[in-house]
């Protein structure tokens, strides 16, 4: 292996955010003409690494060196990296949906003569590119009229116009159905044979095994190892072991569960995507939660965890929802958030800033937001009672703020999360669905959140915790469901659960159903 | 189950007072963003008083300012609610025209008794609001477009109803509501150097001051009972004293001129009612929740569509009130009635501290914003300024007010 075979070398990359070390001395080599897969858990640092590479985080905001084609690179922005021939296709596609395929392909790179766009040239060139990526669509078709799978191909066609040498795809098949995924992978092989080097970031290990030449594993912001699929004996289990190999330390408050009767049961729950016609996001899911029990829901990005939770919580996600919900053994109809609250369901969202809080309001008005009717007599809110309720939560939840008139937008993540939890606890729910309750929260506040969750279970409530962090689920839950591609792929009791076992189920290795 | 959490980095956030919230009096914390509008209003009044050599604050002029601007202030109440929820209503000027025309046709052409006509007009205003609310809330068209269409639509309705000419005269009772004054029920009393003044008006003023003091005191007592932070006593008393002086100054001026304008009574009722409603009613709170974060409100169980719909219904009814008042004041319903009133109402709301993104604003703020515009109008007319210069100044004030809002918000954001 000579130096000339290495197209990209990232050496000693360290990237720190306030309070968090996202990447720590990461080393990645990409060989010319290969497909390298980068694997890691959610939050392992894969996306951060790609942002460093593409210049989203400019030179100077990280430590370490990047060499491309043997030359050191100091990108100030995406334009610089694209100029070198490095193109990233993000998970969320960056297409202008109301423009045509051809316009999107040449966006920012318009085919113009004397300042006027030459539409014949544009469309002809686009048609040629579409042939190359195997997309049978008219170049003048609007992007919003084609499916996500085809949009992905348009992105690749767009990359090809930029004389791409290194193509990076972040979770390219996460939103695709099986046919589109297969087609995309086939295309990547073709591109590799044409000499375009590819890096794919993927959770789907079967795809990694099928397409990659080598695999680099990242965990907790560090490169763990790189394996060659041709020479090393790589198995999916080995990749999983590398992805999770982390031990549980004493980060969880001790807790003994007192499990009672079933409080919530979901049967044969199926949810369709509201935006992509025909895509099934949750397929025939069954799960149950008992009083006093903390149940985990594990799944990788795009598995349908949030979609499952939100569709149950008053159909706030999805269309064409079918299935049955039972509360305390009786079937209930939950058609709106009001219904859900009335039946004692609560859902604390994973993105608390966008979906959970009114950031310009104070603590008390956020705490009372979902249970305002409890504070109101004949439609009039009792201000003083509201203050008292909020202040009680401030004390019992240990929300660190001068008083409950503090603006929520100025609190730290942990305290914001406590406000969200207070809001839902105030509605006096029987079942709490907590979606990523500790995302973006420091270790100390996490401990407090865990303590609160335990307390809720001890009060006889059922708690469903959705989390990307397996150690968290293992440390907290009595029982864990795994979700992969919209299917419940396993149900594991705490005693039997291991990170490796869960990861195997989460990557859909044992989907026999 | 009482495990103690490890040291917490969140502590860093707490201000020094974090450990001592209790009932210690709140530190006098001057909030320029909230109070700036009232200071600006005082400064503008003072400026014009000086420039006009005191004519600005002459009894008759104070009465004029109130009566002339009443319909815009009524619209501003509805508008601020719409803007808090993150919408806009461009159609209110045309709705003023249409409802005024409707009322005039009923009363003048069909001799419908005026109370019936007013009730019918309010219902018509509500239906107009329901029409627009349907498209915005349930059909999902942005309010800007729906009400832009409404602006044309209801102006067309106005012209159709009126047959393109003014209809009048309006019955006396309705004119009195818009333009008239309370009778001197209790006769006059002398006020020394100020001359005679209407006793009834003075008593109403004194009662108003007493009511302000009483409600403020009750609120303070309630908060103290719940161990909440309250203003220090001196600030509490100063605030009431300032309010009392302002109210009594206006009341004495009115008492010396023509007694209480009826429209002021109406306006005061609306301001008080809507202030309490936005602050205390579940519905009012939900307006702020929707404007502050639509998704969070939805996921907290707020019936977003229904709230939005009723907001527009409310706007329609208030526009009808304004329409009746406007027609009554001019003694006829004209084809151009309410022209550009939507712009004055929107400007009043934004000058009064509403945020462009929604979620922020107060009824009293919008009223103050409307009065600022009214005072500028009136003051410049007294000075004999041409109308183009009045427009110029009003435009500049609107831009400055919103620029100030954006600026303070950016600074607040940067300090996080």
What does this structure look like?
With 513 residues, chain A is an alpha/beta fold. Chain A has 2 domains: 3-244, P-loop containing nucleotide triphosphate hydrolases (Rossmann fold), CATH 3.40.50; 262-344 and 475-513, P-loop containing nucleotide triphosphate hydrolases (Rossmann fold, 3-Layer(aba) Sandwich), CATH 3.40.50.300. Chain A is 33% helix and 27% strand. Chain A contains 18 helices and 24 strands. Chain A has a 6-stranded mixed sheet, sandwiched between helices. In chain A, α8 (236-244) crosses α18. Chain A starts with 5 loop residues before the first strand and ends in a 7-residue tail after the last helix. Chain B folds into 2 domains: 31-179 and 261-407, ABC transporter involved in vitamin B12 uptake, BtuC, CATH 1.10.3470; 181-260, no CATH class. Chain B is built from 15 helices and 2 strands. Chain B has a two-stranded antiparallel ribbon with strand order 1-2. In chain B, β1 (188-190) and β2 form a beta hairpin. The longest helix of chain B has 28 residues, at 387-414. Chain B is globular. The two termini of chain B are 35 Å apart. Mean pLDDT of chain B is 86; it is low at 1-28.
């Amino acid at each position: 292996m000579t130096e000339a075979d290495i197209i990209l070398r990232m050496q000693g990359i360290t990237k720190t955010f306030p309070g968090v070390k996202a990447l720590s001395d990461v080393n990645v080599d990409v060989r010319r003409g290969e497909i390298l897969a980068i694997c890691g858990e959610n939050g392992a640092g894969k996306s951060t690494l790609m942002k460093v590479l593409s210049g989203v985080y400019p030179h100077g905001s990280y430590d370490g060196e990047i060499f491309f084609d043997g030359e050191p690179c100091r990108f100030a922005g995406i334009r610089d990296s694209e100029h070198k021939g490095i193109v990233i296709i993000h998970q969320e596609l960056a297409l202008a949906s109301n423009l045509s395929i051809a316009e999107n392909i040449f966006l920012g790179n318009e085919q113009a003569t004397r300042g006027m766009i030459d539409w014949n040239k544009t469309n002809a060139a686009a048609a040629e590119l579409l042939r190359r990526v195997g997309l049978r669509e008219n170049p003048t078709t609007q992007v919003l009229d084609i499916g996500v799978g085809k949009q992905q191909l348009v992105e690749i066609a767009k990359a090809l116009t930029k004389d791409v040498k290194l193509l990076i795809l972040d979770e390219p098949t996460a939103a695709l159905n099986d046919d589109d995924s297969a087609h995309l992978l086939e295309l990547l092989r073709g591109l590799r044979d044409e000499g375009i080097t590819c890096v794919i970031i993927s959770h789907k290990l079967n795809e990694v095994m099928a397409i990659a030449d080598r695999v680099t594993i990242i965990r907790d912001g560090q490169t763990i190892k790189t394996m060659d699929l041709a020479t090393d004996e790589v198995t999916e289990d080995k990749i999983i072991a590398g992805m999770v190999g982390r031990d549980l330390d004493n980060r969880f408050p001790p807790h003994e569960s007192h499990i009672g009767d079933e409080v919530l049961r979901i049967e044969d729950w199926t949810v369709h995507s509201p935006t992509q016609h025909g895509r099934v996001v949750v397929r025939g899911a069954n799960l149950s939660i008992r009083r006093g029990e903390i149940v985990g829901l594990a799944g990788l990005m795009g598995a349908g965890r949030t979609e499952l939770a939100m569709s149950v919580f008053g159909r706030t996600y999805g269309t064409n929802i079918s299935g049955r919900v039972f509360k305390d053994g009786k079937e209930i109809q939950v058609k709106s958030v009001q219904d859900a609250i009335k039946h004692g369901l609560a859902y604390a969202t994973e993105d608390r800033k966008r979906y959970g809080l009114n950031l310009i309001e104070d603590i008390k008005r956020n705490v009372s937001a979902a249970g305002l009717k409890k504070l109101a007599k004949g439609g009039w809110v009792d201000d003083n009672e509201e203050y008292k309720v909020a202040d009680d939560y401030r004390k019992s939840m240990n929300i660190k703020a001068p008083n409950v008139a503090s603006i929520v937008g100025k609190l730290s993540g942990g305290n914001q999360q406590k406000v969200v939890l207070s809001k839902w606890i105030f509605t006096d729910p029987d079942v709490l669905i907590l979606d990523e309750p500790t995302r973006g929260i420091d270790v100390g506040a996490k401990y407090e959140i865990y303590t609160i969750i335990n307390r809720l279970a001890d009060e006889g409530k059922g708690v469903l915790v959705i989390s990307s962090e397996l150690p968290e689920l293992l440390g907290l839950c009595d029982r864990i469901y795994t979700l992969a591609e919209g299917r419940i792929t396993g149900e594991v009791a705490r005693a039997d659960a291991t990170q490796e076992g869960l990861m195997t189920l989460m990557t859909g290795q044992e989907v026999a159903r | 189950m009482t495990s103690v959490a490890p040291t917490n980095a969140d502590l860093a956030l707490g201000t020094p007072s974090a450990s001592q919230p209790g009932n210690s009096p709140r530190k006098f914390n001057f909030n320029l963003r909230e109070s700036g509008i009232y200071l600006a209003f005082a400064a503008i009044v003072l400026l014009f008083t000086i420039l006009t050599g005191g004519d600005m604050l002459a009894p008759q002029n104070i009465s004029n300012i109130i009566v002339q601007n009443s319909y815009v202030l009524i619209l501003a109440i509805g508008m601020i609610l719409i803007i808090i929820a993150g919408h806009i209503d461009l159609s209110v000027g045309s709705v003023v025209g249409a409802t005024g025309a409707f009322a005039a046709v009923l009363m003048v052409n069909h001799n419908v008794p005026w109370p019936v006509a007013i009730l019918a007009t309010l219902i018509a205003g509500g239906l107009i609001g329901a029409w627009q609310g349907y498209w915005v809330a349930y059909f999902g068209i942005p309010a800007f477009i729906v009400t832009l269409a409404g602006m044309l639509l209801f102006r067309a309705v106005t012209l159709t109803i009126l047959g393109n000419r003014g209809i009048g005269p309006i019955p006396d009772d309705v004119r009195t509501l818009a333009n008239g004054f309370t009778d001197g029920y209790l006769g006059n009393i002398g006020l020394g150097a100020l001359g005679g003044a209407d006793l009834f008006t003075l008593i109403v003023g004194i009662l108003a001051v007493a009511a302000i003091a009483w409600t403020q005191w009750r609120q303070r007592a309630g908060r103290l009972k719940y161990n909440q932070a309250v203003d220090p006593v001196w600030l509490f008393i100063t605030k009431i004293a300032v309010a009392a002086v302002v109210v009594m100054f206006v009341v004495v001026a009115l008492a010396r001129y023509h007694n209480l304008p009826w429209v002021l009574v109406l306006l005061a009722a609306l301001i008080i009612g809507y202030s309490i409603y936005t602050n205390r009613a579940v519905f009012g709170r939900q307006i702020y929740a929707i404007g502050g974060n639509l998704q969070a409100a939805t996921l907290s169980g707020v019936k977003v569509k229904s709230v939005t719909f009723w907001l527009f219904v409310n706007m329609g009814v208030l526009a009808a009130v304004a329409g009746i008042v406007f027609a009554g004041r001019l003694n006829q319903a004209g084809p151009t009635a309410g022209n550009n009133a939507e712009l004055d109402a929107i400007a009043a709301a934004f000058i009064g501290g509403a945020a462009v993104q929604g979620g922020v604003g107060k009824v009293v703020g919008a009223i103050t914003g409307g009065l600022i515009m009214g005072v500028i109008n009136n003051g410049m007319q007294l000075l004999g300024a041409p109308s183009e210069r009045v427009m110029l100044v009003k435009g500049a004030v609107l831009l400055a007010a919103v620029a100030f809002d954006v600026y303070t918000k950016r600074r607040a954001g940067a300090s996080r």
